[in-house]
Amino acid sequence: MITSRLCRLLAGAGALLATLGTSSLPAQQPRDTVALPEVVVTATRYPVAPESVSATLTVLHGDEIRAQGLRFVGDALRQVPGVQIVQGGSFGAATSLFMRGGESDYTKVLIDGVPVNDPGGAFDFGSLTTDNIERIEILRGAASVLYGSDAMTGVLQIITRRGTGPATLDASVDGGTYGTVRWAGSARGGTDGVGWSASLSRLTTDGIYPFNNQYHNTVASALLNARAGPTTRASLAVRYQDGEFHFPTDFTGAPVDSNQFNTQRMTTISLGLAQELPSALRAELLLGRNETTRGFDDTPPPESGSTAFSTSEASIQRNTVDGRLVYAGIARTTLLGGVEFDDEHEQDFSRSDGDFGPSSDSFEASRTNWGFYLQGTTQPI
After folding, report:
1. pTM
2. What are phi and psi of 101, to 5 degrees?
3. Which residues 6+ apart lie within 8 Å of 361 measured at CB?
4. What is the pLDDT of residues 156-187, one digit of tens each?
5. Which of 88, 150, 285, 377 is the most buried (most CB within 10 A)?
6. Could you name the CATH architecture of 2-23+42-378?
7. Which of 350, 340, 180, 158 minimizes the C-alpha distance to 241?
8. Any idea of the CA torsion for 300, 302, 304, 307, to the nearest 10 degrees?
């Protein structure tokens, strides 16, 4: 019920954004390019200048990351102090983040404000790429007051690139060792009333092992933001990734299996609405959905003559509603109050046939979480 309502709301909001963008375009007048001051949002949940944040915050800019040739977020995070990245194999292998000595499930990961952690807090960075990313904000230190128990050692937020100025197109093709080929294309543009960005990429590689180590990953990302008058704005962001990782190793690390592989698909949708109100108030609403499906397949090829097999699939859906009210009517002081609701559902299914005969197993669970938070920040004179 919640999922269907959210999907209908997102579809309606997308149509509203398109209408706003269409109606705003004719009224726009060309303006000179203006360099806006940098702001960050993760530390306080509202935009502030980086120098006014008391928490330890690092910002990685997407253009700079890609200029360094870094195609995976995990590789970019290796340069951040206090962050340790551990990858369990070749391209696409399970990749975990450890922040300030905490466990890998102690850091909350957000994509445009939408939580993407698995139930329990873990997140696999193995297939998360830097495509169409404007910046990555890494908040180091406990942030559970604002973000819940997933944020015991920090928060990492990925923000999709905004489009401004004349339409710009980019395309690239890369190739290298291990049979690696990557192509990508992106476009962006916008005016004061509406902005947009989109990208599509594909990576394939044979991997570092001599057999059964292929990996491929397809990533699509898009964002549309619109302003309806001076006091109302909205944004809709979608990110999709689909990867398949073959690995020949057993639990000891020995390359012995010629057919097992993992699959992963993840879709994240974020709808943000903001309305300026009288008396220095601003209301914000975030509606989000993250859906992740992971599979494992160890079915031997027909020519092997073996009947033993093992397959499994896990599907996780997470719907998020986050509403907050910001008050800036006191000099050098900002007050924030908010409420967040999470609805999570997981389904697992596995089948196998081996020395002990065929077997199957299934698991299903759901949970809902409510959270309330209050914050006050002030700057000394």
Report:
1. 0.89
2. 80, 0
3. 348, 349, 350
4. 999 999 998 999 999 999 999 999 999 999 99
5. 150
6. Beta Barrel (2.40)
7. 158
8. 60
